[in-house]
Amino acid sequence: MLGRLRMDVDTAIDTYNNLAEQVFSDPKRWPGDGMFRATKLEKAIKSVVQNNLKTGDPEGPLLEVSDPSVCRT
Amino acid sequence: MDANIPVLFRTYQSQETHTRCKIWEAARATSAAPTFFKRIEIGNKQPFIDGGLGCNNPTKLVLKEAKLIFPTHQIGCLVSIGAGQAEVISIRTPGFLQQIMPTDVNNALKAMATDCEATHEEVSPLFADSPNIYFRINVEQGMQGIKLPGWEQVANVEAHTMQYLKKEEVVKKLTSVINAIKSPKAQLMMEQFSLQ
């Protein structure tokens, strides 16, 4: 959030809290392969990427080819 | 998969960069704490989980990586931020989650915290002769009641953290951190570090 998505600290905290609530508030009834739903987590992460990446692409690449002076994460 | 060999997901080019990884995949992989979320496969069906034992405090990895990409630079400041002191992290409240969470998860959480402190103990001496470069910031008290998926306890985490930040020695430490970032007095060459 702070690195690749260039959020400021306050926005990152708010976004994280929001994401945690979405993902952890509803544990699986039958845990099996993990107590929480990975699909829900994926959806929440993609929406954060979409809302914060300049291109608005939820499938945006991790690798950043731009300015070498920006923060490396 | 060998969970003991950590993989770095980088936003920049390096010899080992996973060039085709997406942002969400990296975020998903680093969230895949065993028993919380299932693992994820990225690229060539390679499975990933969140940092296993020995990989929860990345300070040594950061030093190694910095040496690789900035071989001729000096270190101005290195800040390591923990998630709560080892001895005090424990999951006390037996609730619904506790019942379905196997006991070895609790043990694993304690082991992770201990593991983080061990790395700190290992890194600290490297900076013994160069004060005000390496800083470890870690809330010492009060995190014991916080469950790992405890999103509804964020207010408690915030309160304990504020308490910690008011301590005199912590205020002093943070002032030194700020000074080190604003006007780094780098005396340590990257090449001086030999890490295993």
Describe this structure in words.
Chain A has 2 helices and no strands. With 73 residues, chain A is mainly alpha-helical. In chain A, helix 1 packs antiparallel against helix 2. The termini of chain A are close together. Helix content of chain B is 37%, strand content 9%. Chain B is globular and about 45 Å long. In chain B, 20% of the residues are buried. Chain B has 196 residues and is mainly alpha-helical. About 5% of the residues of chain B have low confidence. At the A-B interface, helix 1 and helix 2 of A face helix 1 of B.
> How many helical stretches of chain B?
6
Counting helices, strands and paired strands, the structural category of chain B is: mainly alpha
H/E order of the elements of chain B?
HEEHEEHHEHHE
Q: Summarize the main sheet of chain A.
A: none
**First and last CA, distance of chain B:** 21 Å
Protein chain pair with the most extensive contact, residues per chain: A-B, 33 and 33 residues
Task: For this entry, give a set of tags.
A: 73 residues, B: mainly alpha, two-stranded antiparallel ribbon
Give the SSE layout:
The complex is a heterodimer of chains A (73) and B (196).
Chain A: H1 9-24, H2 38-52
Chain B: H1 23-30, E1 40-42, E2 46-48, H2 59-69, E3 74-75, E4 78-81, H3 96-100, H4 103-123, E5 134-137, H5 154-166, H6 168-182, E6 188-189
Parallel strand pairs in B: 4-5
Antiparallel strand pairs in B: 1-2, 3-6
Task: Write a compact overview of the structure shown.
In chain A, 42% of the residues lie in helices and 0% in strands.
